[in-house]
Amino acid sequence: MSDRGEVDLTGAKQNTGVWLVKVPKYLSQQWAKATGRGEVGKLRIGKNQGKAEVSFTLNEELTTIDSSSGKAPVVRAPREHPFTMQTVGGQTLAVFTETSSGENQLTNKIALEGVVVQRAECRPAASENYMRLKRLQIEESSKPHRFSQQLDKAVTTNYKPVANHAYNLDYEKKKKEEGKRARADKQQVLDMLFSAFEKHQYYNIKDLVDITKQPVIYLKEILRDIGIYNVKGTHKNTWELKPEYRHYQNEEKSD
Amino acid sequence: MTSLGNSSSTGTEYIVRVPKNTSKRYNIMAFNAGDKVNCSTWTQARMERDMSNRRMYGEEETPEAGAGSEFGKKQREEARRKKYGIITKEFKVEDQPWLLKVNGKAGRRFKGLKKGGVTENASYYIFTQCADGAFEAFPVHGWYNFTPQAKHRTLTAEEAEEEWGRRNKVVNHFSIMLQRRLREQEHGEEEEEVAGEKGGKKKKKKGGKGGDLRIHDLEDDLEMSSDESDSSGGEDGEGKSKSKKDISSKAKAKKKKKRKGSDQEGLEDSDDGDFEGLEVDYMSDESSSEEEEPEKAKPNKGDDVPKGIDEASESEEESEEENKNEEEGKEEEEEEEGKKTPVQTEKKKKKEKESSGESDSSEDSDIEGETASALFMKKRTPPKRGGRGSAGSSRTGSRPGTPSIDNAATSNTLRAAASKLEQGKRQAATSSSDTPAAKRLKMEPSSQSPSGKSTPQPASGKSTPSSSDVQLTEDAVRRYLIRKPMTTKDLLKKFQTKRTGLSSEQTVNVLAQILKKLNPERKNINDKMHFYLTE
Known about the structure:
The structure holds two protein chains of two kinds.
Chain A: E1 7-8, H1 10-14, E2 17-24, H2 25-32, E3 39-48, E4 51-58, E5 80-86, E6 91-99, E7 109-122, H3 128-142, H4 166-178, H5 186-199, E8 200-202, H6 205-212, H7 216-226, E9 227-230, E10 238-241
Parallel strand pairs in A: 1-7, 2-7
Antiparallel strand pairs in A: 3-4, 4-5, 5-7, 6-7, 9-10
Chain B: E1 10-17, E2 24-32, E3 45-49, H1 54-57, E4 66-70, H2 73-84, E5 98-102, E6 109-114, E7 122-129, E8 135-148, H3 157-165, H4 175-204, H5 209-222, H6 228-241, H7 250-263, H8 289-315, H9 320-334, H10 337-359, H11 367-380, H12 402-409, H13 413-426, H14 435-443, H15 445-454, H16 456-463, H17 474-483, H18 488-494, H19 497-500, H20 504-518, E9 521-525, E10 528-532
Parallel strand pairs in B: 1-8, 2-8
Antiparallel strand pairs in B: 3-5, 5-6, 6-8, 7-8, 9-10
Subcellular location (chain A): Nucleus
Family (chain A): Belongs to the TFIIF beta subunit family.
InterPro entries (chain A): TFIIF_beta (IPR003196), TFIIF_beta_HTH (IPR040450), TFIIF_beta_N (IPR040504), TFIIF_interaction (IPR011039), WH-like_DNA-bd_sf (IPR036388), WH_DNA-bd_sf (IPR036390)
């Protein structure tokens, strides 16, 4: 598909200029709460004695911070945020977008939106409000995630002594009803073995016992006839059919 | 809706919007300023994820069912990982690098690696101005650093280390890559050649690898058989694999030649070792097992020689004929000395064989061939002794003198002439003129070299029809080799045909024999085999 991977270069051709702005975390969180069309605030660009001054004012309704504890907001986010402008130099920054059409990542559309012409950092204006907010944040993050706590009473609800565990009872019952494994007809066992070996090449003796429900000694006798025991190699301690009995796709042998 | 200038300072206010429901994800594509990337100049671009890391996280390629699979393997593997706490990182497509190709196939290529930690503590937003004057802010999802990918060839780490070691010696650094490219070209050609030769070789010979090569070469010269050149390369390979035995191969070579001639047609796809120990009906009445052994040794030696020749010819850009000769010569020279002699003998034997096989008389080939065959004939004659029959190799002087007598028996004018020549050369031939003695000499040239040299020296000295300034003598070669390590090519240059009066082929043969006798030490300098003596 030639479309896939093709980059839409309209933005680059138009040389659309964009700004790259670094925004504090709390501010981006507030922005995420914006309603409606997504208006979050106002950007004021002015010229003060030849220097461009950019400042962002947060909308009123977005200043309320929901603290994690669910209590009424103690602090509010500051409103004024001057921007610190920086040059892009040293790097050429372009912006590209990926349109994820559904889950399939491979059919994304990639477009070049533009080139970054200005870098800026959004800083909160130093205010009492902000300081309080910061202090709260620090307190929050300095709390340890794990801590030790002393208990008053010993915990007695976990392990209680039991005459016999429920699991054990079930196990014994199952064993009883299954009974000792009886030796079935040799031919039948062989059939079972062959069909098992059709599915997989290497088997553990325990698994074979499980599948065939035969006593181990008897099963081993039969296996010694038709199979070999791998001692070395990657498939250690496994049984496989003798070459002449094998009939796998990859191998040329057949019985 | 912009509200214009309402603040004290001159400025304008813009509304900032953060759109909520975009399916578009914004990412940053960062280029180094030094790469001089200008996006507006791009005509077309393709970008896709680099999935080459996917297999790292893939499971081992064990079959799930059927052959090779184990019952319950998956569960066991899972239990094992849990027990050891092995956690494999998931392959996240999001984190894979980007491959950007600009301006089609011939354009630039970039690789974009994701920069980590961008969205952890602060968020980046892209502020775009919309048509209505408001700003729209989009959060940056990921940051990728794009670096250009080199399209020119680069050296690997080992090669770079090598070159670094040589930086003081190499003047022209620009030619390093050029040489490498040329070498690769040659190598590629040689490989094809070798492949072809190998096929041809098998057809031609049996057993006598080295000898076979030789034989083929000669045959080429003589235009006796086709695809000779093919075999030379193959022979080289085979020769190398053979162990070099220090056995006088003259007899063997002779035998081989005979065999070859007789069984040429049936020799397709014969392996080197297949014919050892085979009893073959020879044209002549040579059939001693003793000879057979030496012959076998000879082919082995001969094998080495072919290899040498390949190397030599690879670096030489000479005319075909010269190449041929040099191939022969190189084969003889580059391989162990021991080989050389056998090779030479084999070569000669080949020629002889040819003649004997086909017409049992000198063949009607070019003069060179005739001379050679004549020479070979001479050698051939004493097959019983396992006569090395190396007319050329007789230069070593260890050849028994009997061949000459036998040669005389072969009624061939050319041979007679050649034999005369040889006789002249052989006059100083070894004291021991019997084959066994000669064999012994040949077998232990190294051990006997100090002593043996004295004897053959006069012989080798005579090997060149003196009439020139420089004689291709053992002494001369020794001098050169003691002074400094030289390749066979260098040695050949020293004894130019014009000055020694020998034909290039003869030069090659003689030189090979001398080298074999001298048994110099070999050293690999700059990928070339150098010989040197320390005395």
